[in-house]
Amino acid sequence: MKRFNIVPRPNFIKNLGGYSACRSIKKELVSDTALGDEGYRLTVEKNSVLLEANTEQGFFYGEKTFEQLSFCGKIPCAVIEDKPRFTYRGFMVDSARHMQTVDELKKLIDAAALLKFNTLHWHLSDDQGFRIESEKFPFLNEKGSWRKGDDFGARHTDIPYGGYYTKAEIRDIVSYCAERFIEVIPEIDIPGHTTAIIHSYPHLSCKKEEIAVKTKQGIFDDILCAGDSRTLDFLFELLEEVVELFPGERFHIGGDEAPKKRWEECELCKSKQLALGLESPEQLQGWLTAEITKFLEAKGKKGSVWNESLAAGNLPEGILVQRWMDPKNKSTIWANRANYIINSDFYHYYCDYPYHMTPLKKTYNYSPIPKGVAPIMEKYVLGIECPMWTEYVYTFDWFCYMAFPRFAAVAERAWTIEARCDHSSFCERFEALMPLLRSMGINPAPSYEWNPTPGRRLAGTLGFFKDKIDFKTITNSLNSQKN
Ligand SMILES: [Zn+2]
Questions:
Q1: Beta bridge partners of 132
Q2: What does the pLDDT read at residue 478?
Q3: If you measure from the C-alpha of residue 261 to the centroid of ligand 1, how many angstroms do you get, rounded to a whole number?
Q4: Domain spanning 88-482 has what CATH number?
Q5: In percent, how much of the chain has pLDDT > 70?
Q6: Average pLDDT, the chain
Q7: For 80, phi and psi rounded to 5 degrees?
Q8: Which residues surround ligand 1, an ion (CB under 5 A)?
Q9: In the prediction, which pLDDT does 1 show?
Q10: How far is the CA of 164 from the centre of ligand 1 (A)?
Q11: Are 90 and 121 in contact (CB under 8 A)?
């Protein structure tokens, strides 16, 4: 056991030797530029614990460090001076494919706060379900929140699946996060991944035909019709209703995986493209994104999108781009042009693939700054995020198994400077943190999954999940996305 088992690893620790008998913290608000908005200085001595910070958020992180330090009983004397490397430290929860209960979300949020995350990206609308209560558009809940069953990989059920978060539940989650200095960024994916919306209101698609809410994962041709003026009217009305629930600065409007097949065939979309003098359906998506972004800005929000939105080439400056799979490196060009990006690289930070496909070491050792970002533009990499997609992750235990320790690894890379990051040190410290997480209702994967000894690597994942997971489908989907 190490003397200082803290995740994320603090950036400076001076070991004073010995142990403290003091359990209560004395807080002192200071004005110390070295600590920044989120930093703190924790001085643990034999008979006193002093916590200094410029802000309440700094105090909060100092307390989280003390919580980890004191969990094992003996509190080592030390001076810890600490502040984050990145301002955006996010984890993403997909509640569209499978939902989590409010209590489960709160457990995740507590664990995330312990790891000093400050952003919850909450994916609430997709082909498999719409998860926000709407009074203006009741069919989104009556119809769009439900699907006939599950057909994800090897798992098939004919049991109707669905539900949505009421406005009261969403407000509860948002304020629970705010108390822990976590901003909630909701995502309504537009214009693709909108089967649930189209099922509720078929006139919003190009074909104007009803389609069923999807029971399997994938990329689907039916997307919102950009040429029909009723689409933007609907989106403005819906966003007007939804932004009220989320007081944070940002709103994610998706923009990923939107095939243009329907737009190429749709008379309304074709004439809209012509009328706007646009060269391609991709630019039509750029125009749609710009219109929505303008609307959000009028509401005091900033837009976020997935990196595919850059394909249009006419994305409004200033929009936050989330990089996940970007073979043409448009997001690095975006950053080099002084626009902010965050990095949630598919091969390293996606948490829904088994550990033998995305080993923890690969996640941990990945540099948060994407290759190609010029050194003087690195400040435009606002931070990093670990997404948890839930097509296959349909129980909370499984969520925790896949997310921990990965969330902790990404949290450390988001907080700790490069020179202090060390994979084997992380594994030791995370192992020591596991009892604390378990006491919070979070059961991480056992260490043989993520810190494997040679020859045992596959045994854990396959043994635990072989009845639940279809590796062939996952491998195929992983390979198809690589191409
Ligand atoms: Zn259309």
A1: 165
A2: 47
A3: 10
A4: 3.20.20.80
A5: 94
A6: 93
A7: -115, 120
A8: 206, 225, 227, 266, 268-269
A9: 65
A10: 28
A11: yes
Domain boundary assignment for the chain: 12-82, 88-482
Tell me: domain 12-82, CATH 1.10.533.10, correct? no
Ligand 1 centroid from CA 235, angstroms: 15
Reduce the DSSP state of residue 148 to 3 states and report it.
Answer: coil
How far is ligand 1, taken at its centre, from the CA of residue 162, in Å?
28
Whether pLDDT at 456 is above 60: no
Please report which helix (H) or strand (E) contains residue 224, including its range: none
Each residue's pLDDT tens digit, 244-278: 999 999 999 999 999 999 999 999 999 999 999 99
The CA 228 to ligand 1 mean position distance, Å, reads 6
Ligand 1 centroid–CA 15 distance in Å is 64
What burial letters (b/e) apply to 101-135, b meaning 16+ CB within 10 Å?
eeebbbbbbbbbbbbbbbbbbbbbbbbbbbbbbbe
Structure tokens at 342: 């965050």
Which residue from 157, 266, 144, 149 is spatially nearest to 198, judged by alpha carbons?
144
**pLDDT tens string 379-409:** 999 999 999 999 999 999 999 999 999 999 9
Backbone angles phi, psi at 91, to 5 degrees: -130, 140
If pLDDT is split at 50, 70 and 90, which confidence band does 212 have? very high
